[in-house]
Amino acid sequence: MREPVRDSARAGLSWSAVRRTAALPSGSARLTPLETRAGDDGGMQLDRVLHDYTRYLSAERGFSENTVRSYRSDLADLLRYAEETGATTAKDLDLELLRGWLYRASTAGLAKSTLARRSATARGLTSWLARTGDTPTDAAARLRAPRPDRHLPRVLTRDQIDGLLAGLATRAAGGDAMAARDLAVVELLYASALRVSELTGLDVRDLDLGRLTARVTGKGSKERVVPFGTPALRAISAWLDLRDSVPGASDNAAVFLGARGARVNTRSVYRLVADLLQSVPGGGPSGPHALRHTAATHLLDGGADLRAVQEMLGHASLGTTQIYTHVSTERLRESYALAHPRA
């Protein structure tokens, strides 16, 4: 077993100091699977930790399947590392072990954002273990990780958005159901700043065409009502008029369907938007989230209140929404440099 941390002052070390002092385990022999190894002190075995915690995230915290999958991936890597060090139970997940795990990830070249996410995953796990009484203390309460580099999201100009929508409208004018659907999808993504999972999860009953609103289910199964405008209303109405012509549409409650009548999936929407953005100048991600970023930035450019934008986006923290103020400021600088005679 590992020796415990003898110098409690190490808990205050900076990330750079941890990188210099954390020790990786020496080469280890092949170990038996976690589920066959009992803990010496009767604590919760590590395989049980992974199972129970991810079940808690799903059943009690209401995290989405994709979010739980990300947590499970990080935790599986942590538990593999713990096994290599000789840890067998939840009580062995101490600060030294967690630092060693992050250090190994950093030397493997993982991005700062990944390290920060893993650190957050570890803190969530040990906090839960402490609350449930499986560990005497919260081992990761003082765990530090490098701050992730913050990149400004890709934002399209209004002219670029207008061009994309005009091209989709031309295709939809021919009366093809899938072309009408594509126009409605992009109009709604931009009009309401939706996440792609929120859009694909929409049912017909979630739309209020009279009030121009949609009820969406966001992260943590939290519902909110978002507005959309008249152009989106026209596109959605045109699609709904053609929706019943899709085979199997009457058996599906989803707003947006594939050509065979199944609920459209996130991959299809991602491919649609990525294909559209291929022809648009500018770097950065090209999926549906670019439309969400664009909508939020255009709202702030137009004078919308930051907290109203936070509510519309479904952000739990105002700090998450504030990145769009930086985008707006950067766009202002660019406009100033181009237009002001004394720039």
SSE map:
Layout: H1 15-21, H2 46-59, H3 65-85, H4 95-107, H5 112-131, H6 158-172, H7 177-192, H8 196-200, E1 207-208, E2 213-217, E3 223-227, H9 230-243, H10 266-277, H11 289-301, H12 306-313, H13 318-321, H14 323-339
Antiparallel strand pairs: 1-2, 2-3
Structure description:
The structure is a single chain. With 343 residues, the chain is mainly alpha-helical. The protein has two domains: 8-131, no CATH class; 158-339, Orthogonal Bundle (hpI Integrase, Chain A). Helix content is 52%, strand content 3%. The chain has a three-stranded antiparallel sheet. β1 and β2 (213-217) form a beta hairpin. α2 runs antiparallel to α3. The longest helix is centred in the first third of the chain and has 21 residues, at 65-85. The radius of gyration is 25 Å and the shape is globular.
Oligomer: single chain
User: What percent strand?
Assistant: under 5%
Number of strands: 3
Morphology call: globular
Overall average pLDDT: 81
Task: Write down the domain tally.
Answer: 2
Order of adjacent strands in the largest pleated sheet: 1-2-3
Q: In sequence order, what are the helices and strands, one letter per element? A: HHHHHHHHEEEHHHHHH
Q: What's the end-to-end separation, in Å?
A: 64 Å
State the share of residues found in helices, binned by percent. Answer: 40-55%
| CATH architectural designation of the largest domain | Orthogonal Bundle
CATH topology category name of the largest domain:
hpI Integrase, Chain A
Rg, Cα atoms, Å: 25 Å
Largest sheet properties = 3 strands, antiparallel
Number of helices, counting only DSSP H or I runs of 4 residues or more:
14
What is the CATH homologous superfamily assignment of the largest domain? Intergrase catalytic core
Category by helix and strand content: mainly alpha
Uncertain parts? 1-42
